[in-house]
Amino acid sequence: MPDILFAAPALWPEYETVLAEALAEAGIDARLVTEATAPGEIDYIVYAPSAPLQDFTPFTRAKAVLSLWAGVERIVGNPTLTQALCRMVDPAMSEGMVEWVVGHTLRHHLGMDRQIVNPGHVWDPTCPPLARERPVTVLGMGALGAACAAALRALNFPVTGWSRSEKPGCLQGEAGLAQALSTASILVTLLPKTPETEGLLNADRLALMPRGAVILNPGRGALIDDDALLAALDRGHIGHATLDVFRVEPLPQGHPFWTHPRVTVTPHVAADTRPASAARVIAENIRRGEAGEPFLHLVDRKRGY
Ligand code: NAP
Questions:
Q1: Residue ranges with strand state E in 3-70
Q2: 142 C-alpha vs ligand 1 centroid, how far in Å?
Q3: Residue 302 in domain
């Protein structure tokens, strides 16, 4: 019977029932604990970045650390972590991200703000172009980026993707990035935060985008150079930025993003981990661990995601 440490105490009330149910569904008879009185006896650790647990050294028997978060930048470099690290790929999280990205894409594509906030009651019959005439670029075509790209393509948006590895409809490398940015009427950033992606959208790369382009960032705040973005927004080169994630969260009061007329702030709500479906992902990985099968969603520690 495996011992599972649920190391995110603040989340326990949401997971206590659904995790027990998911383990039972997966045929796992496990002991679930929220405190490791005997760390050397723990087989799996369920983890969230808010967890007080930072030293994994005493967990000598643990086969895996199972993250409840998709982004693992706060744990991937932990030198005490020698166990396998699996990140969260949750179908309900993908659904949430698709809804946020499609919703904000349509807001900008249709120019909805002009009608929603129209204090002068201006009758402006300008029609937006069709989606087929509005190129969208998605940086990061992993679990979330690919789901968003598929949903946008289903609405007829021509979508260009950019990823590290080759995949259909996806560009790679610096030249591919330049091409993907230069055609992006709307840019969606769904890259993980790694040393390679930090500050990726700097002044030079923002300058490659067409004038008036819109940026949607539900990936990580660190992907964008804030000062360069503010300067590009001030010039009108970037028409609008809808930002869900920030270098410091909550976004500090007084940060210029709060009041900039071309910025929309959403408070890291694009895609939450949903306990019921996430518990099934955790349970499936524990089933695999117990059956000696490879874990799903293993993080490549060298790449950092
Ligand atoms: P994922 O499946 O690991 O996908 C990451 C994508 O980024 C992959 O396509 C990967 O390329 C690409 N990539 C990584 N480094 C790259 C580089 N240096 N150059 C080019 N492409 C690179 O991750 P995911 O599940 O889609 O999640 C993406 C991110 O979304 C997470 O890391 C997290 O930061 C963020 N997120 C935000 C929220 C929210 O509520 N705002 C919720 C969940 C996740 P390959 O395909 O070639 O590996």
A1: 3-6, 31-33, 44-47, 64-67
A2: 5
A3: no
Domain count, the chain: 2
Residues 29, 32, 38, 43: is their CA dihedral positive or negative?
positive
Ligand 1 pocket mutation pick from 144, 171, 194, 251 by most atoms within 8 angstroms of CB? 144
Compute the C-alpha angle 174/298/95, nearest 5°.
Answer: 75
Q: Give φ, ψ of 39 to 5 degrees.
A: -55, -35
Q: Is residue 202 part of a domain?
A: yes
Distance CA 186, CA 206 (A): 12
Tell whether ligand 1 has an atom less than 6 A from the beta carbon of residue 138.
no
Question: In which domain, by residue range, is 69 found?
Answer: 3-90+273-291
- Cβ atoms < 10 Å from Cβ of 161: 25
The answer to the question of residue 296 being in a domain is: no
pLDDT confidence of residue 50: 85
For residues 215 and 263, the answer to whether their CB atoms sit within 8 Å is no
Which residues of the chain, if any, have pLDDT below 50?
none
